[in-house]
Amino acid sequence: MRIFFLLPRVPYPTEKGDKLRAFHQIKQLSKHHEIILCALNDGVLHEDAIPVLKKYVKAIHIIPIPKISIAFNLLKTLFSGKPLQVGYFYNTSSAAKIHKLIEQYKPDHLFCQLIRVAEYVKGIQIPKTLDYQDVFSKGVERRLSTAPFYLKPFLKIEYNRLLRYEHDAFEAFDNKIIISAPDRDLIPHPDNQKIVVVANGVDSDFFKPMDREKRYDLLFTGNMGYPPNINSAEFLVNEILPEILPHKPNLRLLIAGANPHLRVLVLKSAQVEVSGWVPDMRECYAAARVFIAPMQIGTGLQNKLLEAMAMQVPCITSPLAFHALNARDGEDILIAQTPKEYASHILMLLNNAEKAKKIALNGYHFVHDHFNWETETDKINSLILGQPVI
């Protein structure tokens, strides 16, 4: 079967969650199908992107979105009633190119990642699958509580538009998938239980325990230009660390990840290192005693937790991130809500090597048992073939 993959970003390098998910889905589905990849691109194309992706796809088409086009389309979107999430990635020139490619390749199935590209295929009479991945409306709603006052009116408008669009997109696609059951339940449609949960996996051949010097007591990773990660970094440094430092004045925290926002860069101190982009995140995981993901806003499954657990690093996270993971609190991972609770867990793991080792090992086995790219992507394959999803 020929599948036309339409993505809002080029799925390499895999430094963002949507790119990681798309890359592994393409890699697995290419074992059974011919993949035509069409990806929008609003940045500089990585020199290795096409050579790497060519291993798994029959053809690649990259459609640039110029910054001037983005600005113009966002302005138009303000008056269209559509979410800015959609307007950012949509323009008529790209639509014409995409429709021409679909006519050229005559695919048997269209696969769209995120509602950001749903507008391009509405009305096309070819079987279609939408990967909601995350619930954008809920993510925006959670940001409302911490946003500056001048952004709140715009976020409120975007929230209401996303609610409508996520509902309407449901009707436009034959199949719908999403990253977790909690996210599925938040999709604003009465038939949201028909959405198939397709979790992420973890590449356990790549992310595996490594013997390295433990140079950091704490580690937090992610795209540090992403609002939920910025918020988490600030919460970690400004709220949690003050509870710990009286007991561990020499504690070392590493915040690692691409595109650190100014709000993250200013968190640097004698105890806090902000690395920016790192070529191999495994080295960061392996050098840390404890991994912490104190997510306060956002949605979806945290790949950072899967990777840390696969590398046998004991993890602490928030109830928000925990619900998508569905691990065992106190056995596979530790859950905290307040700064004092986080501090208590961190100090316990740093002072109790036996307990830290047990949670690290349990987390390792949990991830291996429940998060496998091949198993999860088999669900997509079944949907595309019209077979029951197991």
Write up this protein.
The mean pLDDT is 96. It contains 16 helices and 13 strands. It has helices at 17-29, 49-53, 67-78, 84-87, 92-105, 136-144, 152-172, 181-186, 227-244, 262-265, 281-286, 303-310, 319-325, 339-351, 353-370, 373-385, and strands spanning 2-7, 34-41, 59-64, 109-113, 128-133, 175-178, 196-197, 216-221, 253-256, 272-276, 288-293, 315-317, 334-335. It is an alpha/beta fold. The protein has two domains: 2-201 and 372-385, Rossmann fold (3-Layer(aba) Sandwich), CATH 3.40.50; 216-370, Rossmann fold (3-Layer(aba) Sandwich). The strands form two sheets. Strands 3-2-1-4-5-6-7 form a seven-stranded parallel sheet, sandwiched between helices. A six-stranded parallel sheet has the order 10-9-8-11-12-13, sandwiched between helices. Helix 1 (17-29) packs across helix 16 (373-385).
In a nutshell, what does this entry contain?
The protein is built from 16 helices and 13 strands.
